[in-house]
# Entry
Amino acid sequence: MSERTLQPGEMRYNEPMSRHVSWRAGGCAARCYRPRDRADLLAFVQTQSAGMALHVVGLGSNLLVRDGGLDATVVLTHGALRQSELLQQDATGAVLEVEAGVPAPKVARLAAHAGLAGAEFLAGIPGTLGGALAMNAGCYGDEIWNHVDSVTTLDRRGVIRVRTPQDYHIHYRHVQLKHPPQREEEGPRALEPAPEWFLAARLQFARGSSSTALQRIRALLAQRVATQPLNQPNAGSVFRNPPGDYAARLIEACGLKGAREGEAEVSLKHANFIINRGQASARAIERLIERVQQQVWAIHGVALVTEVRIVGELA
Ligand SMILES: Cc1cc2nc3c(=O)[nH]c(=O)nc-3n(C[C@H](O)[C@H](O)[C@H](O)COP(=O)(O)OP(=O)(O)OC[C@H]3O[C@@H](n4cnc5c(N)ncnc54)[C@H](O)[C@@H]3O)c2cc1C
# Structure
């Protein structure tokens, strides 16, 4: 199997998703496609029969595919939806239009270089804008949806829409369309909400100064290097923080730092991170997640909810 990067316009079969997720672990996608651009993505979606599951993936920095793999077509947005443009500038601020495959740190830099303030928090989130919108990614007191003017979406039939934040329930690390489009297919999944993906967003930021924003980006990145195990494969915070508390504090108080299942380990540097020490299986990572949940429940009576998304079949 080729180790070459999946090129725009290329389809691969049985593609190891470990190449496309930051945990560097897990099973294969039955099919994996990286579109050339937005028009190619639209044409691709329209040619896929309604019953064929599609799964959109950005940089895989919040994702685990189980070892038995994913019986779906994974569509990669990074390197595909990569346009960005500065719109509507005035003395108070500006709107950036950014496609979903653009990495969040690049959005932070684009905004800083345009003399805008408020996008710096995105610099340390190693996913795409689309993944950030899906997760309502955030840190240091800010979240992506605080800056969304509108989003452009694509549904399973190939219909493109412009939506506003009012169309969504927006919560901590969770975003849900209030009225999702209907599914086309019949069968057991017919009553589930049909998927709709982000193609792009218009993001609003206030006027600021480039040098201040760039300085803040450097400071935030240095803070991450000091507190997160960035030199080992991981997926950021595994669990959402429970109301009024921190998952990391609860996990550490259970004495779970350094706990292992196979090659998966609760980071010694940050207890809400699980690192892959080399050859961790997705099962080992998931077993460790379950063990942490059980112990935190037993000791603190708190049910930790995963922030990372786990998909696919057990081996
Ligand atoms: C070291 C590290 C630090 C991190 N720090 C933070 C942090 O500070 N704050 C934070 O919130 N997160 C953080 N994360 C988690 C992660 O980076 C974010 O959740 C990020 O927004 C995910 O983007 P992605 O492109 O990697 O999404 P993926 O992992 O590829 O996908 C995540 C989910 O989003 C869906 N999705 C992806 N693209 C689209 C799209 N275009 N339309 C619809 N759905 C889509 C996928 O189907 C999947 O369900 C961190 C991760 C790491 C590894």
User: Anything to note?
Assistant: The chain has a mean pLDDT of 95. The longest helix spans residues 282-300. DSSP finds six helices and 19 strands in the chain.
